[in-house]
Amino acid sequence: MFATTNTILLIIISTLIIFLLYKFIFNKNKKILKNSILIIGPSESGKTTFFYYLIENPNIKTIMSMQINELKDHQIKFLQNKHTIIDVPGTGYYKDFIMNKLNETKLLLLFINSTDKNSIVQSSEYLYDILNSDKFNDEIDIIVCCNKQDENFPKSKKMIENELEKEIDNLKNIKQKNNLDDNVQIGTLFQMKSKFNFKMFKNVEFIECDKKNEYNSLIKRMKELLENKNIN
């Protein structure tokens, strides 16, 4: 009777071990579906307005977003494949959420209010954290959306690019000097000895856009990027 009990117990333990090993190997080899369009940026940069434009509700009046807007497997009218669209509020509270979503992100749209200096400064912090993260790779395209070009005195995409380079380089130098970094992995930018330049990242580009012209240049580029890559 004792031997039989031990045999049954051994079978149960062996079965459990096999199951756990299978689950571990399966999850390790399972490829994460990268079909998300992640929309981020400082408050009042126009990202939520663009989110509603993508889901074909362009006339809704938006207020400062306090929660994440997410629409799974949505068919955007100008794209062939379905995508998950995520609009993240412009507060530092959601930094970890953004970092964790990079594994699922196919296209990241960073919206900037081209008329607001503070919007550019805040955007440099987003870009530093993303480009310095070990979760960022060549499979993620980033478009810096220099939005609100239809308003008074907007800065051009080249001016914004130059200002962002200076701000990111300054952040890098401060963190290096004080040995500060939020990531467990020290990261690409933290280790960089040369001056920061966007030419180091071929998958980061800048586009001028605005709602008045229905985001024409941005939509054209989104279509080119998303339809030239197959989702596997």
Describe this structure in words.
This protein has 232 residues and is an alpha/beta fold. It folds into 2 domains: 1-30; 33-227, Rossmann fold, CATH 3.40.50. Helices cover 42% and strands 16% of the residues. It contains 7 helices and 6 strands; from the N terminus they run αβαββαβαβααβα. α4 (117-132) packs across α5. The model is unreliable at 26-30 (pLDDT under 50).
The CATH class of the largest domain: Alpha Beta
This entry's quaternary arrangement is single chain
What do the pLDDT scores average to? Answer: 86
CATH topology of the largest domain: Rossmann fold
Question: What share of the residues lie within helices?
Answer: 40-55%
Task: Please name the defining characteristics of this protein.
2 domains; 6-stranded mixed sheet; alpha/beta; globular; 232 residues; Rossmann fold; 7 helices
Short description:
The chain is an alpha/beta fold and 232 residues long.
Would you spell out the secondary-structure blueprint of this structure?
Elements: H1 2-29, E1 36-40, H2 47-54, E2 69-74, E3 83-87, H3 95-101, E4 105-113, H4 117-132, E5 141-147, H5 157-178, H6 188-191, E6 204-208, H7 216-227
Parallel strand pairs: 1-3, 1-4, 4-5, 5-6
Antiparallel strand pairs: 2-3
Helix pairs in contact: 4-5
